Amino acid sequence: MASRLVCVRCGADGPLVDGRLCPRCFLETQGPGRVPGSIAVTRCPRCGSVRVQGRWSPGPDDVVDAAVQVLTSALRPWEQVESLEVSGAYIARNPATGSLTLVARLRVRFRGVEGEYEVERAVGLELRNQLCPACFRRAAGAVQAVLQVRGWDGRLRASERRAVEELIASVPNAADAIVEVEERREGVDYKFMDQGVARAIAAKLRSALGARVVESHKVIGRRSDGKPKTRLTISVRLPFFRPGSLALLGDKLVVIESVAGGRVRYREAGTRRRNSMDVEEAWRSLRPLPPEAVEYGLVTAIEPGWIHVQLLGPSMDYLELPRRGTRVEGDVEVGSEVAVVRLGAQNYVIRRDLAGL
Ligand SMILES: [Zn+2]
Ligand SMILES: [Zn+2]
Q1: pTM, to two decimals
Q2: How far is the CA of 87 from the centre of ligand 1 (A)?
Q3: What was the pLDDT predicted at 171?
Q4: Rounded distance, CA 73 to CA 117, Å?
Q5: CA–CA separation, 67 vs 166, rounded Å?
Q6: In angstroms, rounded to a whole number, what is the distance separating the alpha carbons of residues 120 and 222?
Q7: Ligand 2 centre from 233 Cα, in Å?
Q8: Separation of 124 CA from ligand 1 center, angstroms?
Q9: Fewer Cβ in 10 A, N or C end of the chain?
């Protein structure tokens, strides 16, 4: 019989893995093989498929099982190891950072050694949502929400489009949730598979840009249980008013100061009187200033009781506006270019660069 087999590390009798170490000492010093420090699990949010080594395959329902599948494919056992598998796992979340760890129990069998051994490994875990190619192709037919963004007068300006896109980019996961962008003459349609994201974007467009939001549902088929399958259409109309623009409120001219948090703040032109209203009220009561109500001219004289304006428009009228019935917006001096708005007995003289017209 050969000489007694003794582990060089702990002195234990018994089978040695590599002629030197017992299985326990081998695992403690070298581990069962190469185990990645972290893994990323990419799952399709629709069908649960998991991407393993660049290829999509039907995945388990449970995210732990999906992570185990990814980890298993990434294990590289040492040559002394006959089999290495994940026998159990759970996900731990660091409450401070929110980062995830997959704590996996690995079951090891060594070549020429009886029995199984277990060792635990903690692996960083990143969860990613991504549509698998099959679901991506089906997405066009599975659109659950359409966000129709329109300008207030039936066309969407480039600046409005930019503002909308910037806002969408600021909503978490929104850009990924859009499955199609359809350009239309009157605006843009954004298509989503997820109604929640579409609603979140609409809510932000209302709150930050003052958009009017109207939801409607359209039956697009029947589900397997016979209930109607509906598609949500969210009509988002951007307002004519934005910070700096002039608007009519009843018979008064107001300057929009800000749109934020679903409220529109305004100031009566030529005064310091400020007020606010919610977006819906603003849509009901604010009117754009009709272009024909605005005339342009040059201030030619300023007297204590009068402001003189030479109109440059078609009429070329020379106006002597009584101070008492005239509100002046901005610092106006002789030579200033101004917009003149006459509403009933009230005149407004607005420095042209503030008129936003
Ligand atoms: Zn040992
Ligand atoms: Zn899928």
Answers
A1: 0.58
A2: 23
A3: 85
A4: 20
A5: 34
A6: 49
A7: 24
A8: 29
A9: N
pLDDT value at residue 126: 86
CB atoms within 10 A of CB 34: 10
pLDDT of residue 82: 95
- Tokens for 81? 């190891």
Mean pLDDT of each 10-residue bin along the chain, 357 residues long: 73 89 94 94 83 77 86 94 95 86 96 93 88 73 87 89 87 76 86 89 96 91 80 95 93 94 95 96 95 91 94 88 93 93 92 77
* Candidates 3.30.2130.30, 3.30.450.20, 2.40.50.320, 3.50.40.10; CATH matching 291-354: 2.40.50.320
Rg (CA), the chain: 35
pLDDT of residue 1: 36
| Cα–Cα–Cα angle for 67, 69, 71, rounded to 5 degrees | 70
Q: Alpha-carbon distance 62 to 224, whole Å?
A: 24
Distance 51 CA to ligand 2 centre (A): 10
CA of 194 to the centre of ligand 2 (A): 14
Contact 167, 208 (CB under 8 A): yes
Task: Report which secondary-structure segment, H or E, holds 305.
Answer: none
